[in-house]
Amino acid sequence: MATAETKETKVKDENISSGKFVKDPVNKVLKKEEKIELFRQMVRIRRFEERSLRAYQQGHIGGFLHLYIGQEAVAVGSISVCGDDDHIITAYRDHGHALAVGMGMNECMAELFGKATGCSKGKGGSMHFFAPDKNYWGGHGIVGGQTPLGAGLAFGLKYKKIKGAALCYMGDGAVNQGAFHESLNLASLWDLPVIYIIENNGYSMGTSQSRSSAYQECLAKRAEGYDMDWDRCFGHDIYEVRARTKAAIDRAHEKSRPTLLEIDTYRYRGHSVADANAEKYRSKEEIEDYKNTKDPINLFQRQLISEGVLDEETAKKIDKEARDESNESAKFAEESPYPEVSSITEDVYWEVDNPDQKTSQGRIFFNDEA
Amino acid sequence: MRVIEYKEALREGLSEEIERDENVVLIGEEIAQYNGAYKVTEGMWEKYGDKRLMDAPISEAGFIGMGIGASMLGIRPVMELMFYSFSYVAWDQMANNAATVRYMSGGQINCPIVVRGPANGGTNVGATHSHTPENMFANVPGLKVVCPATAYDVKGLIKTAIRDNDPVYFMENTLLYGEKGEVPEEEYLIPMGVADVKREGEDLTIVSHGRCVLMALKAAEILEAEHDISAEVVDLRSIRPLDEETIIASVQKTNRVLLVEENKPFCGVDAQISHLIQEKAFDDLDAPIKRVSAIDAPAIYSDPLEKYQIPNVDRIVKGALTIG
Questions:
Q1: Residues of chain B numbered 72-131 and touching chain A (CB < 8 Å)
Q2: Residue A340 DSSP code
Q3: Alpha-carbon distance A78 to B322, whole Å?
Q4: Which of A87, A184, B93, B291 is disulfide-compatible with A226, CB 3.0–4.6 A?
Q5: How many helices and strands (H and E) does chain A possess?
Q6: Which residues pair with A171 in a beta bridge?
Q7: Which residues of A touch B267 (CB under 8 A)?
């Protein structure tokens, strides 16, 4: 059984550096270019999110927009240690994971704009990005609703004798949902190769962890009730995220056993852009402190510079490229057409979309004729 | 032709599909080692083993959701609900995840899952175990809903449901499991969305589904013998997709309609059927459409009253006689 790190509210500057995990085997093997690529991915997510926020404020995007800013090292780090047969599923704060699995900014931004060129043809929106060709199974809007699906992906891999794992992400607000607990029980009972990753940003919407969860010290410890391995790590250190996730993936691959991995992180913005109280249920000082001391991108930039892998100039260039790419994606989205009215009833039933393989008869849609 | 029970026909259909496709797996409470709460899966665990039949803990949201996730990877899970009333515990998974993941992914994903089990009252178990949610699931685009009434239909339809690439919610009836009917030895499939005229008639169309079909048939005999009314009985078999053509053709022949279902009347399946008939065959009607549904209250426990609350032969005959 893994042991938990003691929760530290303040982390001393020297402890934040990624030195501790730089020598972990999974990080030791990283080539210079691969390290820069991890950095680039985090920067791309940050700039994409900022650009989407601007588009939201300009009225191009409606509904919900749950930004990933501050949490970038979690998605990039954990997904970077996945192999070809490992699968990803997450909740509604899904843009970071989408970019990390290799989805393009254009298709993602266009989806936010509700355009036909979006990754879900404008039918899913911010909370529902999918790319099954990249082993990315969403993007799910109901808190905790994706956790049984994550068990199902793992079940499917095991049933087909594929040596893979399902990484199922959720926020700290999901751990009090019944479906989550049912999933933990099934995963352990049936030896499913699933890794439940709690991205603990401290707040389920406006309710802090101490006001929502009965066990305060550590959420991942709940795994013990299901005889499941668990672990906990800092989410601002991408090297640590990689090391801890890899250990869980190895457990899934080698032993077909699940893991509950809690990763402490922080979101700079509100629960969604529509969260009017983002700076009321937590202090400005708290937000600023995290930005100043634990920003995952700044920390990794500093780490890579200290390793001699990156220099300021290259970092600036990467940042500019990411800004340009995000601006381009907003332009692409704006210029893209909205879906046709006829598309409203497409992609509802597989059978309707594949008429040459139709086996049913009868009426399936019940719109009165105009 | 040989005569077997509804549950035996269902078991044959499940077994044939297990043998045909290695991705078919049956999961549910007490389906394996216990041999099934209603013996539908009797002997199957012994024959097909742990991989193909799995006993689930009492955890409907968990295991149904797990089946949905597995189906996205190409597994064909056939999940049993001991009572379809328990679907309410798994509602988010069944109505939110299974029904919408295809749409919200822009058609990139499909869920070839079957969720089956009995959805009926009339068994003296009180309201929590007597729900008939076919109307509610049929209200959700992305889902298919099937309610077979006979041994022949249940076998042909379960095989089709398992092969279907969309989620199919397959609603049986504990009071039908022991009903016998003719089932051929050779393999057959019944497409969804095809109604079956179970009895031909000239004066009145009775549209029904599930166990009410059997009562409608008995009522039709009484109407013929005692009231000289020739009733046609249309068994929907499949709620969504719906065979509107067979309904309309029958209405055009008889010009009078009685709708019979165990659903509650408000927003029941028959509310939709009634709308369709007035839309497509208004001029063919010689009288207003009448309905016989469950009496609009939670399912009562008391046995004789429950037998009256859900449609029975007597209420169907009386309903037919009110049509002018």
A1: 72-75, 92-93, 96-97, 101-110
A2: P
A3: 69
A4: A184
A5: 15, 8
A6: A199
A7: none
Q: Which of A:99-128 have CB within 8 Å of B?
A: 118-125, 128
Q: What does A290-325 look like in DSSP terms, one character per residue?
A: HHHHH-HHHHHHHHHHHHTS--HHHHHHHHHHHHHH
Helix (H) or strand (E) holding B133, with range, is none
Strand partners, A196: A168, A260
Rounded Cα–Cα distance for residues B200 and B323 (Å): 19
- What count of other Cβ atoms lies within 10 Å of the Cβ of residue B104? 27
Interface of B with A in 128-147 (CB under 8 A): 141-142, 144
For B302, residues 6+ apart whose C-beta sits below 8 A from its C-beta are none
Q: Which residues contact B225 (CB under 8 A, 6 or more apart)?
A: none
- The three-point CA angle A318-A321-A323 to 5° equals 110
First to last CA, chain B: 40
Q: Is the dihedral of CA B253, B258, B262, B263 positive or negative?
A: positive
- Rounded to whole angstroms, the Cα distance separating A226 from A29 reads 34
pLDDT digits (tens, 9 = 90+) for B119-148: 999 999 999 999 999 999 999 999 999 999
Q: Is B248 on the interface with A (CB under 8 A)?
A: no
State phi, psi for A107 to the nearest 5 degrees.
-65, -35
Amino acid of residue B205: T
Reduced to 3 states (helix: H, G, I; strand: E, B; else coil), residue B251 is: helix
- How far lies A19's CA from each of A84, A367, B92, in Å? 28, 62, 44
Q: Which H helix or E strand runs over B57?
A: none
CA distance B234 to B216: 9
pLDDT computed for residue A6 by the predictor: 38
Q: How many CA atoms lie within 13 Å of B38's alpha carbon, on the beta-carbon side?
A: 23
3-state secondary structure of B239: strand
**Could you tell me the CA-to-CA distances from B283 to A169, B248, B252, B254, B262 in Å, in that order?**
57, 11, 9, 12, 28
Q: Which of B51, B63, B109 sits opposite A132 (nearest CB)?
A: B109
Q: Which of A64, A270, A249, A66 has its CA nearest to residue A170?
A: A66
A128/A141 Cα distance (integer angstroms)? 7
Tell me the pTM.
Answer: 0.95
Residue B307 has pLDDT above 70, yes or no: yes
At A28, the amino acid letter reads: K
Distance between CA atoms of residues B111 and A149, nearest Å: 11
User: Closest Cα of chain B to A238: distance in Å?
Assistant: 29
- Count of CB atoms within 10 A of residue A328's CB? 14
ipTM of the modeled complex: 0.96
pLDDT tens digits, A97-109: 999 999 999 999 9
Asked if residue A99 lies in contact with residue A44, where contact means CB atoms within 8 angstroms, the answer is yes
R_g over Cα of chain B: 19
Whether the CB-CB separation of A226 and A58 falls below 8 Å is answered with no
pLDDT of B226: 98
Cβ(A139)–Cβ(B54) under 8 Å? Answer: no
Distance CA A135, CA A147 (A): 16
Catalytic positions of B are: 60, 129
pLDDT 10s digits, A225-261: 999 999 999 999 999 999 999 999 999 999 999 999 9
Q: CB-CB: which of A137, A142, A361 is closest to B194?
A: A361
Dihedral through CA B4, CA B10, CA B11, CA B16, nearest 10?
110
